[in-house]
Amino acid sequence: MFCGEKKLLETERRVKANDREFNEKFQYANNRIHTSKYNVLTFLPINLFEQFQRVANAYFLFLLILQLIPEISSLSWFTTIVPLVLVLTITAVKDATDDFFRHKSDNQVNNRLSEVLINGRLQSEKWMNVKAGDIIKLENNQFVAADLLLLSSSEPHGLCYIETAELDGETNLKVRHALPVTSELGADISRLAKFDGVVACEPPNNKLDKFTGELSWKDNKYPLSNEKIILRGCVLRNTSWCFGMVIFAGPDTKLMQNSGRTKFKRTSIDRLMNTLVLWIFGFLVCMGIILAIGNSIWEHQVGDYFQAFLFRDEVVKNPIFSGFLTFWSYVIILNTVVPISLYVSVEVIRLGHSHFINWDRKMYYSKKETLAEARTTTLNEELGQIEYVFSDKTGTLTQNIMTFNKCSINGRTYGEIYDNLGRKIEINEKTKSVDFSFNPQADSRFRFYDHSLIESIKLGDPKVHEFFRLLALCHTVMPEEKNEGKLIYQVQSPDEGALVTAARNFGFVFKSRTPETITIEEMGKVVTYQLLAFLDFNNIRKRMSVIVQNPEGQIKLYCKGADTILFEKLHPSNEELMTLTSDHLSEFGGEGLRTLAIAYRDLNEEYFTEWFKLLEEASRGLDMRDERIAAAYEEIERDMMLLGATAIEDKLQDGVIETIASLSLANIKIWVLTGDKQETAMNIGYSCNMLTDDMNEVFVISGQTAADVWEEFKKAKEILFERSTGFTNGYAFCEKLQELKLGSTVEETVTGDYALIINGHSLGYALEANLQNEFLEIACICKTVICCRVTPLQKAQVVELVKMHRKAVTLAIGDGANDISMIKSAHIGVGISGQEGMQAVLASDYSFAQFRYLQRLLLVHGRWSYFRMCKFLCYFFYKNFAFTLVHFWFGFFCGFSAQTVYDQWFITLFNIVYTSLPVLAMGIFDQDVSEQNSLDYPNLYGPGQLNLLFNKRKFFICIAHGVYTSFALFFIPYGVFYNVAGEDGKHITDYQSFAVTIATSLVIVVSVQVRQLQRAQDKATPLKSHKRQPRRTSSRRSGYAFAHQEGYGELITSGKNMRVKNLPTSGLGKTMYNSTSWIENLCKKTTDTVNSFSLDRTVKL
Amino acid sequence: MACLFRGVVLGGLVPFAAGPLSPQNSKFLPKPMSHQESQEMKSNNCQGLPSRMPDNTAFQQQQLPAWRPSLTARAVLPGFFTTGVFFLSMGILLILSAKSVKEIEITYTDICSNCSKLRENASNFYKECTCSISFFIPEKMPGNVYMYYKLYNFYQNYRRYIISRNNRQLLGEDITNVENCAPFQRVSNDIPIAPCGAIANSMFNDTILLSYYPNSSTRINVPLLSSDITWWTDKHVKFQNPKSSNLASAFAGTVKPPYWRKPVYQLDQGNPENNGFLNSDFIVWMRVAALPTFKKLYRRIHRIQQFADGLPAGNYSLDISYNFPVTLFKGEKGVVLSTVMWSGGKNFFLGIAYTTTGAVTWLAAFSMTAVHLKLKKKKAFFQC
């Protein structure tokens, strides 16, 4: 392979461990990353080249060259060169500073140290020197330096935990495990150094969840999957060390491959301005041609006879050549229709607006001391034109905090508080929360407001006790005791964390677990339960159970799960309680809470032993094993006694609902793109009122193949257009599509609210060329679109799709590294700041701490910026046309000789001094309506979306106005000066007086004109006060918010994830499964459940 | 506040550069106001006291006092009427004033056609040609009377013409400085021309004498003053003779412009003060006209004897020494005698413009009043 073509040709990667020479043959990229653009030598040429790629700069350079030719120089060169050089220098300085910081951050990353196995010894090596094939050692909480194949780890069976928040935004820990053969290597350096396996795998790509490869070692071949790969950007957690072999390094890593290429963002007004500048240039050429022809004629008719006094150079004698030169002279004179100061002023105004965003106290989040920040100063007015908002869910709409909010125990609800008159009290910061000080183990962050629950506990209500005992026992949480008995829970699902923490605060503290026991502290008394069986969660069962034996020997099954499933398994005697609880569940669901039903069953020992045999038999069986196990689970999980239900709030950030409501009133469409699973995403959709039960239809697209997806789209369309007949045949379909392309006619025919929910897999097909139009069509009709399980790249693709086909201005908002690509590809990227990861903020154009500030950013700042910018541009073009065209009229009276009307200094300073302040003040400060009004009447935002205030039509009006003004400005003084004398008889019709008169009137006229700009006086319908109203009628959504597809029950019961020292030597059901087969089991199951999950199309649980 | 404005001033400079930056470029940039912020951050770290919360100033929070006029009919209409009244009265005054100006114009290109012909040929350069024209002033021209020469179709505003002068030379500082004067910088043997340039070279050089005939046999030369016909600033600031004991020596080493008959220091043999660059006719000519048809002040009538009250009605004649060729470029020239009013010479344009504007304003005001009154009856519209 030749090195130059390497990237194109790489179809398979072969990496040999510990063999740099072998790997060097392939010239794989090393681990150094480059984000900087220049170095010392290339800076000047590249930067200048880039700068002159801007049409404006190139244009002014061209003018400058023209002005240096004495024959045509109608203006002195300083009128152009001074501002041009200034602009170039400052831009260059700024670029250089930027690049310097980029160099610095590159260096910082490249110089991070990691331990690399070189020549049989571990050595500290800089990241940039790490090469594919190296074996490196990672320690706990370290960032992973490159994409690694996990070889071995401190945990048993080569397990290791990683946090992938940087990659996909999921905060739960993920498990990776090494191949058994390599995990045996352990930390034995000498054996690791001798490891010479060859990995053959796919070439670098950006798929975060796929990896296919093969390890050949010692004449054996082992398949490799994503489960054995640790990607760059992950953080190692709960694992004291691990060893990995570098497979992809530096730019080849999936992280770098995924970081979408940054594009230079410009606003639509910018683009329009560029077009207009080209048009103006065309106009200028036309005028130049007219004047040049005039000059030729004049020279021929008049000038020729004028030699005696009006001397002309020999070269200019030919009228046609003279006309040619005149053309260029006029190009120079008339260039002030597009002065440099336009660009400068636009930047000044935008900078001013950016400052106002930074200074806004109403966008300052005092809890985290975070200011809103306009990181890009060039996009402000586009904030006033947003049509689509793409939002991440976790951390953006939600706080990523699950709180135990309410519960229903034995037919009574807890969690709501009422005043003396029995009215419900809105819970706010001032509401007194329950004092948990009696409980030394309580988590101080936990808040609960209903005092009756704690009283029930203190009174010793057995049902309430049982309820919390269940919460403390039935879960997969791992406890970690930090210093001085401070408990930290490691949770795979934040829901479970919330439940266990609640139990902990109410006096049922989960203390520790071994594979066979669970120790909890019940109201101060430590009790150890034998864990007899663990009936794990999965997506079909939608429930989990534990069977425990308390010290008294009583055996109990505790179960929690989705209510619909659980209610079928109850003992008939629960009928009454079930109806009551069901009502409560509906109520909780209506408030957007996520619910779980909770039940228990008393088991006698004989029954259990019998059942356990059945289970063991089932698990030993080879065929139909899963089905048989499931059947065994079904067998025991019945006739249960209902305890109650929990309601967990996936806490929305403050003001999210209001913001979304307000933005929807402003006709901004909000799409949620999340990596989270469908249920969670929909739940949030409901809780922030994006999905409601009043909706005509919620389409769920979760097809596994392109055909499925197409089928689902077709169905959705049939429903959408059910009135339009004959739509099913392909021809009509095409017609409709064309209609869509022509305009939004289709959308208008559809009435009613629809929502579209699509998962990542289907989205992959939907984004392909043949389906994307349909996807877009349906999605744009729907009021709400939620995409779940999407990869970072898909997020970006969705944004690109809308950007491309809808010609709409898009905004993407997110907080995590997985949102970066979307943030970068949207017109405007907003990062939520004040959280741990800063990547999203660094890639964003604007950042603030809370989603709700988006409302203010768009409706107040964006709207103002847009209005101001539009007014400014209209005015500026008007002003400069009024200013410049006077030369055109004068041309007819000075023999088309390209004589300027004004003094040269006036021309130089007109835009900078004479007329700069009023227009700048308008552009920076003008408020057409007060901020309160623009918040109260979101439809005032409309003109921006429709681009009404500055478009080609407006532009022509401004131009016409300017032409008219210039006409008046020239001909009124002309009439006045014609044949006039001063009041002392002296001659005052001289050129200077004339010039000054016109210039003065010009300055007065255009300055007065600033005020004349029309004021928007839209009367909008007032926004209904949108308090959060609980919708009692809402459907219930119950279930786990597991970000994974399957519970970690097996992991817990097998003891695999517990440190060896914790592992007791014996116990009752010591291992349910053969320990070596466990890992294979897990792998198999995971792939199964992935499929089952995707097939699972149930929407409403 | 000082700090705040520092931010603004800084802001004024940065935007030059902000334009072509891509967003990712700016990610490492210090935030705007970084200075202030970093200070705050520092103090924050040290004492934990001041927050990063932005200052609550009217400027920063966009709460500056603003004028939000509500343009109701009641507020606007009186304004329109007043403006209308003002413009109308101004217009009428101006028209009346222009009407009372007495002005007589005599174009003599055609009348002196033999001289015009003669001048068309450059070889007749040194031949004298005089021309006499009689005319009659029907009404007395009261007060100050001014005599102008008027040129038609003379493009003093032609670009190459207008730039062909050197103001430093005219200031008398450096008599040999002929920069920008192309093509009349030097004569062939490299001697600089003073005054150089096309404007000076083409100076109007007819001499005009005015005679009054109180009766058919008596002829009185109307006394003409060449003083105080220039702008004060021109005479005293912009034009200076080179410093020397006498003018001739001051201009030594230079040569007269090719179209001139006499060197610059001999322009007015009658009055030695009125020579060199300070010659009034020269200064007047050098103040180039804005439009191709223009008149320039030539002389003032000296108000003595019969002419103390201006020019009486009666017969007059002009004696013109015809030197300036205009027929070459299809131009014309003439003499204008005019009185002036507070509004200047005889020009109706301004008055008409004012009157028209006033009339239009009134028209607008009336129609708006009509609309207003009509809508007022249907109150529904205006009740929001």
UniProtKB/TrEMBL annotation, chain A:
GO biological process terms held by the UniProt record: Golgi organization; phospholipid translocation
UniProt organism field: Vombatus ursinus
Family to which the UniProt record says this protein belongs: Belongs to the cation transport ATPase (P-type) (TC 3.A.3) family. Type IV subfamily.
Domain P-type ATPase C-terminal: 841-1010
CDD domains documented for this protein: P-type_ATPase_APLT_Dnf-like
Assigned keywords, A-Z: ATP-binding, Lipid transport, Magnesium, Membrane, Metal-binding, Nucleotide-binding, Translocase, Transmembrane, Transmembrane helix, Transport
Chain spans, region Disordered: 1017-1039
Pfam families xrefs: Cation_ATPase, PhoLip_ATPase_C, PhoLip_ATPase_N
Residues at the active site: D392
UniProt keyword annotation of Nucleotide-binding present: yes
Gene behind this protein: ATP8B4
Compositionally biased intervals (Basic residues): 1024-1035
UniProt protein name: Phospholipid-transporting ATPase
From TrEMBL, chain B:
Signal peptide: 1-19
Keywords: Glycoprotein, Membrane, Signal, Transmembrane, Transmembrane helix
InterPro entries: CDC50/LEM3_fam (IPR005045)
Superkingdom of source: Eukaryota
Coiled-coil regions listed: none
Membrane-traversing stretches: 75-96, 348-371
Keyword set includes Protein biosynthesis: no
Record-stated family: Belongs to the CDC50/LEM3 family.
Listed name of the protein: Cell cycle control protein
Species the sequence originates in: Vombatus ursinus
Gene symbol of the encoding locus: LOC114047260
